[in-house]
Each structure stands twice: as C-alpha cells, then as structure tokens.
Amino acid sequence: MDLQDYFSDLTRRPGCTALAELFQLTERPDIISFAGGFPAPEMFLPEEAAEVTRQLLVEKPFTVLGYSPTPGFSALREFLAERQSRLGIPAAASELMVTSGSLQGLDILGRVFLNRGDRVIVEAPNYLGALSTFASYDVRIDAVPVDAEGLDTAQLAGLLEQRRRQCSLPKLLYTVPTFQNPSGQTMSHRRRQELLALAGSYGFLIIEDNAYGELRFAGEEVPTLKALDTGESVIYLGTFSKILSPGIRIGWIHAAAEIIERAVLVRQAMDQCSNSFGQLLALEFGRRGLIEKQINKTVRLLGERARLTLDLLAREFPVGTTWTNPEGGFYTWVTLQPEVDTAQLLSHCIEKARVAYVAGVAFYAGKGGNNQMRLCYSQPSLDDIARGIPRLARALTTPL
Amino acid sequence: MDLQDYFSDLTRRPGCTALAELFQLTERPDIISFAGGFPAPEMFLPEEAAEVTRQLLVEKPFTVLGYSPTPGFSALREFLAERQSRLGIPAAASELMVTSGSLQGLDILGRVFLNRGDRVIVEAPNYLGALSTFASYDVRIDAVPVDAEGLDTAQLAGLLEQRRRQCSLPKLLYTVPTFQNPSGQTMSHRRRQELLALAGSYGFLIIEDNAYGELRFAGEEVPTLKALDTGESVIYLGTFSKILSPGIRIGWIHAAAEIIERAVLVRQAMDQCSNSFGQLLALEFGRRGLIEKQINKTVRLLGERARLTLDLLAREFPVGTTWTNPEGGFYTWVTLQPEVDTAQLLSHCIEKARVAYVAGVAFYAGKGGNNQMRLCYSQPSLDDIARGIPRLARALTTPL
Predict the structure, then answer these.
(1) pLDDT in tens, A11-57
(2) Topology of domain B60-288, CATH
(3) For residue A34, which of A82, A243, A375, B277 is within the disulfide window of CB 3.0 to 4.6 Å?
(4) Do B64 and A49 touch (CB under 8 A)?
(5) How much is the pTM?
C-alpha cells in the first residue's frame, strides 16, 4: 500500500509549510527569533491567571470539564457583545460566536461562504495563515498591494472594474486593516471609507481581522471597518491570542445573526465547540478588568521593543534598506535591495547568526517578497533585540 | 444586500442540524435527556482536576498561556504513544498528533485524503457528527448495516465487488467498532479480521474511531482494528472526551508518520493547534494514573445505568419493540413498530413527557431509522432513568 496514492489534491499543492517551520523554531532556545508572531511571556499575567483558574476549578469544576454549546457559553457571548462597544461596534449576543482562535473563524467563514472557484481578494503581502485557509477552499485569489495607508483602494477599484467586465466579481475581501500582519501598516480612515464604498458598489463582503487593533503604542486611533459599516458588509474576527493568551485558543466572529447561525451549523462538522477552560478564563479576565491591564502592559513593552528595533534597523542595516513604521502591533516589514533573496538567506542567518525571521515570499499569494522579510519584535527582549538586529545585519551583508 | 446570495452550497444542503438541537437541549434543566452523548458530571474527578490545575498554573504558567506546537506538546505525544500500548498498539510519538477532539481528527483526515467525489463507506446507522464532516467534503457515501456483530462484512464484500465492477472503489471506511455510536453494538473479532482482509484486497483505508472502547462494563475485550492491522490500513482516532473531560477538547490521531506530517500541514490552515491547558491537564492526569481512576468510576456508573435502562425498556416499552444490549459505552438503540415515526414524536415527548432522545433518521446517510431512536444512558441519574423511561414509554403510546 503506497499512501501517496491516497492523499488529497490539497496536500500536493506547494506552500503551506512556512507556518510549520515557524512553530519549530520556537522550540530552539539558542535562536533569537523575530519569526513567530507570538506575545512574549512577560506580557502575560501569570499570577492573576493562577488565581482566576483556582477559583474556576473550585466554584464551577463541572462547567470547566463539561462541553460548551457550539456557539460558545452564553455568558461569554454576552460579554463579547458588550466588549465590542469598546471598539465602537455595539452588538447582540446572537451576532457573536466563540471560535478556537481567529484563524478558525476564517476557516468557518470559508465553509459558510466559499464554493470552489469563487473569487477572493487578499492583501499583498497578506497574513500567511489566511492564505493557507483560502487554499483549502480552492478559490481564485486576487491580491491588492498594501502601502503606508493600508490596502490601495485605487488599485482595488481598477481590479474590480476589470473583474466586473469579466463577470467574475469577488465574493469576499480579507484584510487586517490595523497594524497589519505582516507589514505593520494601518489603513487610513479615508481608505476605510473608500473600501466600504467599493464593497457596497461591487457587492462583496469584507472580513476584517482585528487581531492587533487594541495594541496601539503611537499615533491616533482609527475606527474599525465594522464600526464604519452602515450596512452588513463587514464580518469581524477577534481573538484573545494577543491580549490575553494564545494557548487558550479563543477568538470570536462578530457578524449578522444569520451568518452566525450558519457558522454554528458548519462548526458541528469541524470541532463542535471551543474548550471550556479558555472561554471561562477569558470571561473572568474580562469581568475583572484584567484584559485591559494586560493590554496596557503589552502596549508598553511593544512600544519599547518597536522603537529599539526601528532605531537599530536605521543604524545597522545596509543603505538602501527600507522598513515600515508601525504605530502598534507586532511587526515591521523590511525591504532590502532588489537582488537580496531573503528566503535563500534564512538558513544562513539561522546557522551563522542564530537569528530568525520570516522570508517575504511566504506572505504573497502570487509572486513577490523576494527581497523582503517580516520582523516580529514582540517576543525578543530588549537585550535580544540589541544583540539580534546587528547580528542579522552582518549576516545579510556577509557573502554566503 | 441579501446575504442568501452569498452562502456556500454546503450551507444549502439539508441535515447538519440534529447536533445543534442536541446541544440546545443540554441547556434546559427541566428535561430528562437521553439525547446528548455526554459523560455525567458524577464521572469527573473535580478535586483532582482542581489540584492538578493549581500546580500547572503555579509551576508552568507560561506553558499554559503560550502556544502549543501544531502537532501537540512533545511530552503529550510521547505519553499518548506509550498509552496506546494499553490498547495493544505500540506507537512512536511521530505517529501521533493531538487534535481538538476526535471529530476534528476526522475533519483533518478529510482534508488530508478526500477530493470531491471520492467514495467513502460509513455504517448504517452512523455517528452523526461524522456524517456532517463527510458532507463538508462533498464525497459519495455508501452505508453498510451494523448488526449484533457490528459492521456486516458480507454486505460490505458484496458492495465492494459491485463498486469494483463500476471502477468506483472507496478510499476510506469510517467505523466506531466498539460500543458504536449510536447502536451500542461491538464488531466481533471475526468481523474485524474480515474487514481488515477486505481493506487489503480492495485497497481502502479504515478510520477507527475508538471514543468508547475503554468503557466496557460487561463481556470480553476485543482487540482494536489498529492492533490487528499488520499493514498500514488503519488510522486510529482517540479522545479524552469520554474518559477525562469533553470540555478540554483534546483527542488524537494515531497513524503512519507520513499521514501525521500532512495532517500537521492542513491543520495550520484550520486552527493551528489545540489549547495548551487541555493538553497539560490530560498529560498530568495520565502521569498520575487519574485517567484509569476516572475510567473505573465511569465504567461502574455506566454499567448501573445501562442495566436499569434495559430493564425498564423490557418492562415499560410496547410489545414488538427491540433494543440492543451494549457491553460498554453510552448507548442503546431502540427499534419500535414500523409505523412509529420517532422524528415526528420527538417534540411531543419533549413537551408532554419532558423526555428527550435522538430520532433515528439523524444517523443514516440515506433513508432509514424512521422507527428508531438513540437512548444515551450516561447522563441521566438512576432516578432520572427510573422516572424517564416509563414517561417516554407512555408518551410513545399516547396518541398525539
């Protein structure tokens, strides 16, 4: 029996492996990693988590150990509905569903909306987990560039006009408008309004992934797309991974109730429900104001780490290099001279300089990113950054 | 904007709703429910869970709060590899992957193996979650009846011969061979060997879902299909949902390492990894022998509840009714007179008798089950069973 004959077409496609390699790097302690997009342990509140957990297991052990309803515990959905108003988006509990992280939210929406061959618009560069998810649904992907004002709505308008002539308009557009993964860029207020107008005119839905939006350390707040949406164009994905704990695997979908109803149905063919402990921990952290406490701590640490990273890039990186200037979130996006191949240089940088990043090509649905890299400054300490960026700069300029 | 225009073909298919209704019933305290297939709170070890959790949060809070690697924590994979030998299936950690429950294991295998239009064999009746999962992959389904010896291998052989003539052989067969959901039946040793021989001859893979296999309260142990497999025909799905806690959402896939590698890749487009707390709780429960302690407690309670349920069926249910005689697990499967419509009677039984079951039709890929019902005796107490079965019997015989 040759198992090769049995695998699906999906497993034969290239790509999808970048994230696997990322997670493996996290287990090597000798590497200074600017790769994985994780919060640092120093951002957590371990004592508060221990105390909340102790109480949960004493007061409601059967709730912790038992099944959750598929859409999530009612109390958490109500809490999330209320909390969305912090982002300017009042909601009803019926418009919220708990997910196992925001990527699962996207996977669920894939089943709710996508037929094979549907057209989807992503950003260039784009969050690579989302590119893998769309690949699972065998859809046709168009990518629109991101610049310092976020998704380029003029280019999007041109693309949409072309697709209209071809009778092949998109069904969904996926965006991380605030502190984007991987570029760190934020969509301007003007662009947000243009994007919403285009969604209305051309009839596509927007999936707004706001994993980083509450982690601003500079600049002015910009409203979420969902807050600006006067109709039902925007489906919002949230997560506790960056503001409480990635290990609890709890995110949420905020969308029209009729979308949530279908999301609940498809979820029952996937993993039925999210874990109870993570839901209850998030709820208790929320009720006690601990999420806001952790956000404040995280924002302070991110601001320091981002400033040091950007200062060192200016001092150490070769002339002709450019990078983005994030006002929040985890990432800066570095563009080297055109002839540099960051994918090829990665193993060299890991072996010789013991510094890791993610090569730019991983973040493009099509071509692009050869001379680019994502640097995540959230996990390394200030010391690691101070040692790591110069080492990375030297490795990049030393011949292989 | 009419959202109806945007939903996928999958959401337009009938079915998939039975599980949703099940979960809703669990939130109504006035109903005696023989519906949901959950362990009872009395089967849990809440004090031990509280103590293990307290230690976890004190000793390794950053592991509890941080991401897990996609295949699961190495220590848990090694523990599972060793624990599989309890079931007669020695394994390497590279052959194990942690999943968010066993249904997610099946969903992952769907992405690893299934192309649209592939042929899959299920049991009749079959676990309804698995029917929903296969529906997501748009495959063609053949169903083979289950009797007192489990899957009818003679009928399977006939079906396979027919499919061979049509050049349309199946890629996968899904089975719950021990204490089957929903029938409670167990595949005999002889049938297991016949099934494995057929898999070898006709070249299909077997997915063995062993959610209930360790919960035997009567009769003789039968080896798992995976233990009897001399080649690589069998992929094993396990779960802690019935022997530790469904709320932790932790199961596992045990398969050839090259299958696990692909499972890890597709998982990164789904939910990336399972929650850390659940993995660590399962590992610590395992190391301290608490899983075995909970299994012993569960088996004792299940045996009492099953015996009372079966006695009351004999005493109270109308003449001409038959039911299965489980030696373990959660379920008995009741067949009423041919003219009874259990789906139609369900709301009557809930409203008038305040007793719930799952109507048989939910468990068939095609037609069947009109006069059947699944009774789950794991959750109601002996008192509830003593009151519930007679009430159900009366409601079934009272005109609507």
Answers:
(1) 987 654 555 666 566 567 889 999 989 999 999 999 999 999 999 99
(2) Aspartate Aminotransferase; domain 2 (3.40.640)
(3) A375
(4) yes
(5) 0.96
